[in-house]
Structures are given as C-alpha cells and as structure tokens.
Amino acid sequence: MADRLGAILADGVPRVCSAAVALIAVDGRVAAAAATGELVRYSDAEGSLVAERPPAGRDSIFDLASISKLFTTAVLLSLAEEGRLGLDEPVATWIPGSDRRITLRRLLTHTAGLPPTRRIDLELPGADAAERMAAMLDTPIAHPVGGPYLYSDVGMVMAGRLAELAGGAPLDELVRTRVTGPLGLADTGYRPTALPRIAATEWKRERTGAAPDPGASNTAQDPGASTDGCVRGEVHDETAYALGGVAGHAGLFATAGNLLAFGEALRLGGAPVLRPESVAEMVRDQGAEGAAFRHGLGVRIGDPAIVGPLSGAFGHSGFTGTSLVVDPARRLAVVLLTNAVHPVRGRQGIRELRHTVAAEALRLRDLAP
To answer: By CB atoms within 10 Å of each CB, which of 174, 231, 234, 362 scores lowest?
Structure first.
C-alpha cells in the first residue's frame, strides 16, 4: 500500500515540490504512509541546487500555512464552551472600535466584509509586532457584512487576537494548552526549533542575508533559522512573519503524524479538545454564499481543490502546499504535506497531487473490511 502512495508522491517530486509526506488513515489506523524528496533543494529563486539536501521523512516538519486556521478555530470553540465568548456576539465586546456587525461566526466563515489581506509589513516597515497588530485590528470593512463569502486573512488575524483577549494568554500558548498539549502533538507549534527536520519554503529577497525582522519580538524567531537562501524554520506567510510569527491565519508547523492525530480527533467528535456538539457546529454548513464549497466554522466542506473524489469531506489547504482532509462518512483522514512554494510560488500540479492522494485514500477505504 505504501508503495502505491510512494509512487504517487514520487511522480510529483521535484516537479511539484521538493519534499512530500502523506498519510492515509482508515478507521483511525494508518493504511498508507510515504515520504519522498529533499527538505532543502534550492538556494535561490533560479533553482540553484544546494550541496547538502537532507531527505524528507515521516518526522519532517512543514509550514502548515492556512491549516493553522483550524487550530485557531478549535481554541475559539473551546473558549465558547466555557462561556468566555459567543459565536454571535459583536467582536467589539473584546476589540473596542470594531464594527458591531462583525461576529466570531462571521470571521470564521469569511463573511465579515473584511479585505482578503493586508501587507502590514510594507505599510508599517518600522513598526513592532504590537503596532502592526493594532493596525490590522483597525482594518475597515470593505465589503458587504454577512456575505457573500470573501476569504480574509485579516478576519482570521482578528479571530486569533480575539482568542488571546478572551483566553487571557498569547495565541501560541492557547494552542499549546488547549489543542496540541491535550492531543500530545509534540511536533506542532509556532516558531519551531527543530531546524534539521524542517522543510524549506520560498526564496524571499527581503529576508535573504537580512537581520531578524524588527517587527518581531526578541523571541519571535528561531535563532537557528537561516537568513541565507530560502526561508526555513520561520513562517512563510508575510503577514504572520510581520506579526512576530504567531497569528490566527498562519504560522503553525507540524509533522504529518501530528496533523493526522488532530484530524482524527475532529473525525471522532473532538475529545479531548472539544465537545461533540462543538465539532458538529464546526463542520456544519453555515450557509455562506458565493464560494466553490460549503463553509463551516474555520473549515471548508467539499472544497474541490483538496477533496478529489471524497465529496462531503471537510478540511483546509495551505498556501505552502499542505492539506488536511477528513471524511467521517468514509472513516478517512488524509494528510499531505509539501513545500510547493520552494523555491518560488506558482508551481503547477499541487491540486492534481492532492486529488490523486485523495483517490488513493478512497481506494484503500474500499479495500478495508
């Protein structure tokens, strides 16, 4: 079984990405696992090869990008279970000055009317992370509130800050104490330190050979992270990087095994992180209009970019080339971690690779007793 999955990944490496790890679980048991490629292959945007190219393995750590949103959502729902915040109360309760039409539910369904992104690093090049966060939270409404769906990193940054205010702790601490700690996910977190196991991402001129970002705190970056060549060991996303490496929309790193365990927890009802009714609400179609998929709270349902033949499955993709697909009806969880932005973004084939891995998961499910 692993040979078939390995062949699927090998077909995409290094054409689509330089490293790929995939896990397929049926009924909670790993039915296939494969890892191939090199964690660091290129040194620049022109594709120059580095001399030492460490191989990818099942314990390799990848930048999850937007899959971080699912962990932020889990934190927020756990706070809602404790009565610390409400899905439909105005965010202005916690963030004074915010438009009172903005609610947590609208942030998690991308219907709050906020713009898709904001390059706060370019707007405020000399500011620190706190100043940049304040500016992000002050982003004005730019589109209709309540829908249609408009993907917004700005909204998820606000959701992450809301979690901090309601939870009384930094977001990375909340994720650790409320999600990764209870699940035993030792290799999942913001600002990772296990550099030799981390896959490189994009070559970024603004970071190459540069000093640490002045907008980040002294502890915001792994001191061992390379500032020469392609980004490695620090978050790829520019906004999360500008906010110190921790944000509601991006910044988490994880192994495939850890991400699979998180997906399995959601598939089975949320314990020990969430109550079943919270997960049920998370994966319920919230009625957001205008998207190519149905939207739950923080999760996409039936996203054609990642589910392939697993119609009805929920999950999320990440810009770096990652995806988590959970299909409770078929008893499946599928993880694909890649660094498809290494050394440059815009490489072709990641959608097809995701679909092929999902199709293999369906085949394995059909073979299971």
So the answer is: 362
